[in-house]
C-alpha cells in the first residue's frame, strides 16, 4: 500500500480539529454545563454534610435552582436568591411569632404573603423577579415545617439559610473557576451583531429590497434583542469590572437603538405612503438623500463591525448631519420651482411641500439618532468614556391586573391546600403546601405556566421512581462520600440534560429539584418507605393542583390577558399624548421600552400563531409611530411656551406663535383626539382624530402664511414647519392601509384635500 501524502494527512487533521471546534461551540458547552452543575451540587452536599447541617439536600437543591450556563446569571440569581431568602426568613419568623398557635391564621397569612410575592415576581423582570419568588417560597419552605415546632423555629430558620448559602457559594465558585462562560462576552457579541444587522436592514430598506414580511420579522427580532440585551446587561454587572464600567453605555445603546429603529421605520413607512398616494415629485426630490445614507456605514468600502471601526462611521454621520439642513433648504427651493414650472395648483403644491417637509424632518431626526447610536457603540472600544454617564434605563411594562391575578391564583392554591392539610392532618401536608408555593412561583414566570407545572409534575413522578431505587436499592449498599457521588451523579446528570432542552425543561426542573428533595441524603439517612411515598404523592399532587389552577383560574393563555396587554400597548400612545415630558427616565424612553416590553410579552403569549403575532406588530408600529410623533409635537409646543415666557430670544418682539392661540388649541385638540382613539379604538373616534388633525394642519398653515408675510425669524418659521410635519405624519399614519385603523378609513380619506395625488392616472408605485 502507498502511504498517504503529508498534505492529505494534514487536511484530515484540520477536518478533525474543525469538527471538534464545532462540537465544542455547541454540544460541548452543554456537556461542560452538565459537568459543572453536578460538580457544584456534590460540592454543596459534601460541605453541608461536613458541617453536620441537618438538611444537606437543601444545599444541593439550591444548586439546581441557581445554576446557569454563564457566570453572570449565576451571580445575579444567587444575589437575588440570598436577598429573597433573608426577606422570607424575617417575614416567616414574624408570622410564626404571631400565629404559631393559630394554624388557620398562619396558613391564611402565609398564602397572602406568597400571593404578594408572586404578584411582585410577575411585575418585575429578570432575576429581580426571582428575588420575589424566593421571598415567598423561602417563607413557606422555612415557616411551614417550623410551625410544627415553634420552639425550634429560629434555629431551623438559621440552619436553612446556612444550607441555602452553601448552595449559592458552591454554584458561584464552580461557575467562576471551571471553564467560565461570561455573559459580558456574549453581550459584546450581541451588540456587534445587532449593529451590523440594523445597518444591513437600513441599507436594504432604502434600496427597496425588503417586503412587509421581512420588515415584520426583522422588527420582531429587534424586540427580542432589546429585551434580551437588557437582561444580559443586568447580569453582566455581577461578573467583571470591565462589564460594570460599560454598563451605562450598553443601557444607553439600547435606548438609542430603540429611538433610531423607530425613527427609521417611520421614515420608511412615510415614503411608502407617499409612493402609494402618487407623490412622485416629492419622492424624486428625496431619493438622492436616501442613496447617500448606506455608504456612510462603510469604512474604505467594507462594512463596519467592531466598536473601534465605528468611530469612523460616527464621524461620517456627524459631518453628513451638519451639512443636511442647508442642502435640504436648497432642495426645497428647487422643488418649489419644479412645482411652479409644472403648473400645479395651490392645493397640490402645498401638499407636496408638506410631504417634503415631513420626510426631511424624519430623515434629519433619523440621522441624528443614528449618529448618537453609532457614537455610543464606538465608545465601547475604550474602558471609560463620558457617554457612560447615563441616567435613563430600560423601563419594563407589566399589566397590574395580570400581576394581581398571578398573586391571587397563588394565594388561592396555598389556601385550598392548607385547608386540606388542616382538615386531614396529613403528615405530608407541609410538603404539599410548601411545594405548591414553590411551583406557583417557578411556573408563574413561564409563558405557559399550566404546561410548566404539568411538566414539573411529570418530572417529579420520574424522580420518585429513581429516588426509590437510590434510597432503598443503592444507598444501603454503599459506604463513604465518594461512592455516594458515584451513585448520585448519573441520576442527576439525566435531569440536568433535560433542562438544556427547551421542550423538556419543565421535566428537568421538576426532576432535579425534587429528586434532591426525595433522595438527597442527609447525615442521618432514614429508610421509611411510607414517609417517602407520602412525600412523593404530596409533591405530584401539589403540582397537579397548581397546573389545574393555572388552567382554570383566569388562565394566562386565555384571550382576556391578550386584550389587557393590547390595551396596555395602546395605553403607551395615550401616555405619550398626556404624561409629563420630564422625569427620571424621560417620557420617550419609558414609552419606547414599555411598548417593546409589552410586545415581547404578547409574542410569548401568541406562540406560533402567526396571525396573532402580525396583529401585535401592526399595533406596535402604529403605537410607536404616532406616539413618537405626539412626543415630538409636545416638545415643540413646550418650546413655544418657554419662548413666550422668555421673549428676549426674539429681541423684544412678540412671538407670533405665542400670540396666536387658535393653532395651538387645534393642535391640543388633536392630541386629545388621538389619545381617545388609542384608549378605545372605534370608527367614530378615528374620524374625530382625523378631522382634528386636518383642522390643526389647516390652522398651522394659516399661521405659517402670516409668518412668511411678516418676515418673522427663521427659527419661528422652522418650528412651525416642524409642528406641521408632526401633524401631517400623524395624519398619514391614521390612514395607512397597513395599520390596525385601516378598517375605519374611508377610501376617499387617503387622498384628502391636504394630500391630493399628483395626477388622476393613479399612484406611481415604486419598488
UniProtKB/TrEMBL annotation:
Its main location: membrane. One of its GO terms (molecular function) is transmembrane transporter activity. It is a multi-pass membrane protein. The keyword Membrane applies. Residues 757-767 have a biased composition (Polar residues). The chain crosses the membrane at residues 30-51, 79-98, 104-122, 129-146, 166-187, 400-422, 456-475, 481-498, 505-524, 536-554. It is found in: Cell membrane. GO terms for cellular component: plasma membrane. Signal peptide: none annotated. Keywords: Cell membrane, Membrane, Transmembrane, Transmembrane helix. Residues 745-767 are annotated as: Disordered. This is FUSC family protein. It comes from Paraburkholderia pallida.
Amino acid at each position: 500500500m502507498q502511504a498517504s501524502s503529508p498534505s492529505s494527512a494534514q487536511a484530515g487533521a484540520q477536518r478533525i480539529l474543525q469538527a471538534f471546534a464545532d462540537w465544542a461551540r455547541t454540544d460541548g458547552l452543554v456537556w461542560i454545563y452538565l459537568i459543572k452543575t453536578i460538580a457544584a451540587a456534590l460540592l454543596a452536599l459534601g460541605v453541608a454534610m461536613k458541617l453536620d447541617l441537618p438538611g444537606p439536600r437543601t444545599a444541593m437543591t439550591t444548586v439546581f435552582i441557581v445554576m446557569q450556563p454563564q457566570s453572570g446569571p449565576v451571580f445575579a440569581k444567587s444575589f437575588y436568591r440570598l436577598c429573597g431568602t433573608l426577606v422570607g426568613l424575617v417575614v416567616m419568623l414574624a408570622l410564626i411569632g404571631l400565629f404559631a398557635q393559630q394554624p388557620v391564621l398562619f396558613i391564611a397569612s402565609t398564602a397572602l404573603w406568597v400571593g404578594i410575592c408572586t404578584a411582585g415576581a410577575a411585575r418585575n423582570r429578570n432575576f429581580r423577579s426571582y428575588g420575589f419568588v424566593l421571598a415567598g417560597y423561602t417563607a413557606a419552605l422555612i415557616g411551614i415545617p417550623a410551625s410544627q415546632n415553634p420552639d425550634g423555629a429560629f434555629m431551623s430558620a438559621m440552619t436553612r439559610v446556612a444550607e441555602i448559602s452553601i448552595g449559592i457559594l458552591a454554584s458561584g465558585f464552580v461557575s467562576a473557576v471551571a471553564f467560565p462562560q461570561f455573559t459580558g462576552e456574549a453581550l459584546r457579541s450581541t451588540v456587534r451583531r445587532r449593529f451590523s444587522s440594523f445597518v444591513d436592514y437600513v441599507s436594504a430598506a432604502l434600496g427597496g429590497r425588503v417586503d412587509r414580511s421581512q420588515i415584520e420579522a426583522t422588527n420582531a427580532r429587534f424586540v427580542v434583542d432589546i429585551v434580551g440585551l437588557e437582561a444580559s446587561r443586568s447580569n453582566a454587572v455581577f461578573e467583571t469590572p470591565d462589564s460594570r464600567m460599560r454598563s451605562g453605555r450598553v443601557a444607553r445603546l439600547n435606548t438609542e437603538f430603540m429611538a433610531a429603529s423607530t425613527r427609521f421605520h417611520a421614515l420608511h413607512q412615510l415614503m411608502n405612503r407617499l409612493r402609494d398616494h402618487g407623490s412622485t415629485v416629492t419622492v424624486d426630490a428625496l431619493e438622492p438623500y436616501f442613496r447617500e445614507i448606506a455608504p456612510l456605514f462603510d469604512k474604505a468600502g467594507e462594512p463596519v463591525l467592531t466598536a473601534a471601526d465605528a468611530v469612523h462611521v460616527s464621524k461620517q454621520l456627524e459631518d453628513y448631519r451638519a451639512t443636511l439642513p442647508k442642502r435640504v433648504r436648497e432642495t426645497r427651493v428647487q422643488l418649489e420651482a419644479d412645482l411652479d414650472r409644472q403648473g400645479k395648483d395651490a392645493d397640490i403644491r402645498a401638499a407636496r411641500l408638506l410631504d417634503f417637509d415631513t420626510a426631511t424632518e424624519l430623515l434629519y431626526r433619523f440621522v441624528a439618532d443614528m449618529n448618537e447610536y453609532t457614537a455610543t457603540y464606538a465608545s465601547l472600544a475604550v474602558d471609560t468614556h463620558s457617554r457612560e454617564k447615563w441616567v435613563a434605563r430600560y423601563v419594563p411594562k407589566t399589566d397590574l391586573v395580570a400581576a394581581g391575578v398571578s398573586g391571587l391564583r397563588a394565594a388561592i392554591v396555598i389556601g385550598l391546600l392548607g385547608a386540606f392539610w388542616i382538615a386531614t392532618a396529613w403528615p405530608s401536608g407541609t410538603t404539599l403546601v410548601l411545594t405548591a408555593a414553590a411551583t406557583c412561583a417557578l411556573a408563574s414566570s413561564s409563558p405557559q405556566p399550566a404546561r410548566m407545572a404539568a411538566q414539573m409534575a411529570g418530572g417529579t413522578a420520574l424522580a420518585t421512581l429513581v429516588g426509590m431505587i437510590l434510597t432503598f436499592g443503592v444507598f444501603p449498599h454503599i459506604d463513604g462520600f465518594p461512592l455516594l457521588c458515584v451513585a448520585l451523579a448519573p441520576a442527576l446528570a439525566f435531569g440536568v440534560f433535560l433542562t438544556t432542552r427547551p421542550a423538556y425543561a419543565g421535566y428537568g426542573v421538576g426532576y432535579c429539584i425534587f429528586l434532591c428533595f426525595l433522595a438527597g441524603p442527609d447525615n442521618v439517612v432514614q429508610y421509611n418507605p411510607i414517609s417517602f411515598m407520602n412525600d412523593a404523592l404530596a409533591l405530584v399532587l401539589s403540582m397537579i393542583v397548581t397546573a389545574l389552577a393555572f388552567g382554570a383560574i383566569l388562565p394566562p393563555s386565555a384571550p382576556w390577558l391578550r386584550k389587557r396587554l393590547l390595551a396596555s400597548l395602546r395605553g403607551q400612545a395615550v401616555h405619550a399624548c398626556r404624561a409629563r415630558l420630564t422625569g427620571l427616565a424621560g417620557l420617550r424612553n419609558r414609552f419606547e421600552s414599555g411598548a417593546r416590553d409589552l410586545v415581547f410579552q404578547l409574542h410569548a403569549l401568541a406562540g406560533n400563531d402567526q396571525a396573532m403575532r402580525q396583529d401585535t406588530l401592526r399595533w406596535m408600529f402604529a403605537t410607536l409611530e404616532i406616539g413618537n410623533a405626539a412626543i415630538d409635537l409636545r416638545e415643540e409646543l413646550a418650546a413655544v411656551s418657554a419662548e413666550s415666557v422668555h421673549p428676549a430670544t426674539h429681541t423684544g418682539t412678540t412671538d407670533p406663535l405665542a400670540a396666536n392661540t387658535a393653532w395651538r388649541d387645534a393642535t391640543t385638540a388633536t392630541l386629545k383626539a388621538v389619545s381617545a382613539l388609542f384608549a378605545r379604538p372605534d370608527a367614530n373616534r378615528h374620524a374625530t382624530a382625523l378631522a382634528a388633525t386636518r383642522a390643526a394642519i389647516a390652522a398651522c398653515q394659516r399661521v405659517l402664511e402670516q409668518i412668511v408675510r411678516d418676515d418673522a425669524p427663521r427659527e419661528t418659521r422652522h418650528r412651525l414647519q416642524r409642528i406641521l410635519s408632526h401633524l401631517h405624519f400623524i395624519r398619514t399614519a391614521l390612514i395607512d392601509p397597513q395599520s390596525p385603523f385601516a378598517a375605519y378609513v374611508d377610501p376617499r380619506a387617503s387622498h384628502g384635500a391636504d394630500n391630493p395625488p399628483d395626477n388622476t392616472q393613479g399612484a406611481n408605485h415604486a419598488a
